[in-house]
Amino acid sequence: MTEPSTRLMTGPHAGEHAPRLVSARKPLLHTRSASGDTRMPLPYTNGWFAVCFSHEVRPGALITVPFMGQDLVVYRTASGLLRVIEPYCPHLGAHLGHGGTIDGEHLTCAFHGLVFGPDGACVRACPGQTPPRTALTSRYAKEANGVVMVWRHSEDIPPEWDFPSLDLDDRIYPQYGQRELDGYGDAVGENSVDMIHFGSLHGLTEAAMTHEMEQHTLTVSISARWKGKRLNMRLTNFGLGHTRAENEMPEFGLRVTTLVYATPIAPLRWTFRWIDIPSVARFDGWPSPARKLAYRVLNPMAHRWLISFSSEDMPFWRTRAFLKRPALMAGDRSIAAFRRWSAQFYPATPPGDADTEPVLRASAER
Ligand code: FES
Ligand SMILES: [Fe+2]
Questions:
Q1: Partner of 239 for a Cys bridge, out of 47, 90, 177, 275, CB 3.0 to 4.6 A?
Q2: Does the CA dihedral 325-326-328-332 come out positive or negative?
């Protein structure tokens, strides 16, 4: 209950701090918006999501990764086969990320020594024991563009759609970045269609945006100027976990492809990964050693420049709330389209109470 002269103020993470009363005359910091929305976790969404870079799992390696409120174990056999599995051994539940080892094509649980073959089946037990008829639980996984992607569906439906792999073989020195952030992974996709922020936050001028939607992809094309120079961007969202940005500054003959990955790992916690792949038209005719050297120098610089862009976004990604009924403006047309499109990736029957309903469905219906 609030007194007439007081307001109820909650901390930045509702539930973490006891509510306290403050004077109505003092400035107020609210997590509750004017429309009544709070910064609530959203349901985990369906689709393809990154769990690590391919180079983090060399042959013979086994790692544990956080993924949508649980752990997954990712390993690679000596021949290069990559597998993503549920972490618990089917014998007595040991976490295979703790002491599990890869020997050739097999994974051994450290607790009682059961051995699992490359298809996941239990093939061996310790001396004197017969291996139980059991197997590891696999997740649908795919490696593309140097990233390990896992399919997630709230109803365990196998992959229903795919996303393209780029041929990175002829590219040189792709630049990798990763951050673990508070907030909503969905912010990245929405950021890609947020035309107004490209001007107000990133300083682009003369920005114009169009969008096209097709089932699981939503693409926006943006033409703008950055410090007076022409900048063309084409941002394609493949579900809510992966965005491909193709940025071009024609006056410099510079193109940068940035592959962006957003993976929810816990309520209001997500991992942001990205790969920058610059290419410069005038390098094309250069001899290979000179070209390599040029990219070796250029790419880290381009990477830092691009980080400076996303660094402007990150404070907002970390702290914003997802409003069910945002007060959209005329320039937010692509955001409205994005919210209608993104509703397909939320579970049909969201878990929990009404507060965790898929977001934006309400705004999409407006
Ligand atoms: S729990 Fe893995 S072998 Fe027993
Ligand atoms: Fe941005």
A1: 47
A2: negative
Q: List, in sequence order, every residue forming a beta bridge with 205; answer none if it has no partner.
A: 225
Report d(CA 225, CA 306) in Å as an integer.
16
Classify each residue of 136-173 as buried b or exposed e, where b means 16 or more C-beta atoms within 10 Å of its C-beta: beebebbebbbbbbbbbebeeeeeeeebeeeeeeeebe
CATH superfamily, domain at 175-342: Naphthalene 1,2-dioxygenase Alpha Subunit; Chain A, domain 1 (3.90.380.10)
- Ligand 1 atom showing the smallest separation from residue 109 Cα: 2
Q: What is the model's pLDDT at position 311?
A: 92
Kindly report the protein residue whose alpha carbon is nearest to atom 3 of ligand 1: 112
Residue 269 CA, ligand 2 centroid: distance in Å: 19
Query: What is the whole-number distance in angstroms between the Cα of residue 360 and the centre of ligand 2?
Result: 20
Q: Determine the residue of 62, 111, 124 to mutate for testing ligand 1's pocket, defined as the one with the most ligand atoms within 8 A of the Cβ atom.
A: 111
Query: What is the pLDDT, as a whole number, of residue 348?
Result: 82
pLDDT digits (tens, 9 = 90+) for 170-184: 567 889 999 999 999
Whole-angstrom Cα distance, residue 336 to residue 328?
8
> In the chain, what are the domain boundaries?
1-31, 47-152, 175-342
The predicted-structure confidence for 292-324, as pLDDT tens digits, reads as follows: 888 889 888 888 888 888 899 999 999 999 888
Task: State the distance from the centre of ligand 1 to the C-alpha of 114, rounded, in angstroms.
Answer: 6
Atom of ligand 1 nearest to the CA of 94: 1
CATH architecture of 47-152: 3-layer Sandwich (2.102)
